Amino acid sequence: MRFVEEIVVEEFLPTFRSMLAESLRDRDLTQSEVADLLGISQSAVSKYVHGDVERNDALLSHRGLNELVERLAEGLADGDMSPVQALVEAEVFIRELEQGGLLASLHEDAVPELAEYGGEFSVHDPDSKLRAAERTLSTVRQGLRVLENTSGFATLIPAVGSNLVQALPDGDAIEDVAAVPGRVLDVKGRATIPAEPEFGVSEHVATVLLAARAAGSDARAALNVRYDDAVVAALEEAGHTTVEFDAEEALEPAIAGALAESPDADVIYQTGGMGIEPVVYLLGDDAVTVAERARDLL
Fold first, then answer.
1. Helix, strand, or coil here: 72?
2. DSSP assigned state of 195
3. Angle at which helices 13-26 and 31-38 cross, to 10°
4. Which of 185, 194, 200, 203 has the most CB atoms around it within 10 Å of its CB?
5. pLDDT per position as a tens digit, 88-129
6. SS3 for 22?
7. Mind listing the domains of the chain with CATH numbers?
8. How far apart are CA 48 and CA 44, in angstroms?
9. What percent of the chain has pLDDT over 90?
């Protein structure tokens, strides 16, 4: 685990300070004056100016950083910019580089797993896709632990297997849904989870969830369990709203039609068809919620 702040401290700051110290010295400031402006010791200035610190080549050649250094050096040397203003300028620039810029690239190099999120992201953004994805995966893991620790859950697993899925907040495609690769299966009376949850690995249950969301449901998570009248009755008795859809119709329009009749339904089910196993789908705010609802059936 390596934080982007470590990249800033270990890669950016030595490079930036050395560049700025050099630029200030080029403007005939003494080492003492440079030290006062940068808030560091004269010995540190000497190391920076004489190249006694390791610098990052990518940062050294970064046009934006070179322009910033020249602007700060000129302002500080002329007295038109205070050290506080220079600090603010540098802080803003660092945040920009962290949000899909060079620092984000260096962070990705240090932590290759970040590459799977693609595009531009900011690890400091509370609404970033990266953070949302990790929170979604974490919630699915918690839900799976609930199922694993629920005695008798294997009896609720249909022959086709179960899956616990959760979509990103704005998820509208299979790739936006975290789930168990393969399925949760009944192996000798125990719910067996074959692997850690990933995005884009569920088709059927994820498609059911996405169809419900497209039809107006606020649900972000779903879990499929076996169908029988007693399961549906128990859910209704617990206060849940159930609605049936036709398994032999195309999935998306069938679910849309069912939810049009009962928009508040948080349980949708089908009673089977030619070669189609009857199944109940529990919908909810998150994976833990629907896992706990399954636990309460036992």
1. helix
2. S
3. 140
4. 185
5. 888 888 888 877 678 777 777 777 766 555 544 454 554 557
6. helix
7. 4-117 (no CATH), 129-296 (3.40.225.10)
8. 6
9. 68
